[in-house]
């Protein structure tokens, strides 16, 4: 149910963002659906059901995956990747195992948005510096 609720929310938000963009507005999102790594970081959660024998589970997985496919069809103009080291990630989330932090950092670095301009920023820097670089990247993209 959680995956379906997230999918519904992503459908609604993507639709509103696309409408706003088409009216000439600037849309800024802190997350964007991705369809590259299943079950991880704003990716589909039910993709493993696509190979189930049950037609119902396959249909649910296709429905849940639709907004993630839409996000590929309508990519953002600019992606700002806030990169951190696994060490910084562990300090920020001490409850996470170091191996999981490394896996997450590497996976996020590997996400590709081939139709988008990508700006990579070291998010391990002081907040004021990171914020200034983000603002400059957005203004340069407008």
| Secondary structure category | mainly alpha
* Overall mean confidence score, pLDDT: 92
Describe the sheet with the most strands: 2 strands, parallel
Total of helices:
5
Q: Element order, helices and strands? A: HHEHHEH
Distance between the termini: 38 Å
Shape: flat
Strand content: 5-15%
Describe the structure.
Strands 1-2 form a two-stranded parallel sheet. The protein is flat and about 50 Å long. Helices cover 53% and strands 8% of the residues. The mean pLDDT is 92. It starts with a helix and ends with a helix. By secondary structure, the chain is mainly alpha-helical. It contains 5 helices and 2 strands. The chain has helices spanning 2-22, 55-73, 86-92, 98-110, 127-141; strands at residues 78-83, 117-122.
Looking at this protein, list some descriptive labels.
142 residues, mainly alpha, two-stranded parallel ribbon, 5 helices, 8% strand
Topology:
Layout: H1 2-22, H2 55-73, E1 78-83, H3 86-92, H4 98-110, E2 117-122, H5 127-141
Parallel strand pairs: 1-2
Short description:
The protein has 142 residues and is mainly alpha-helical.
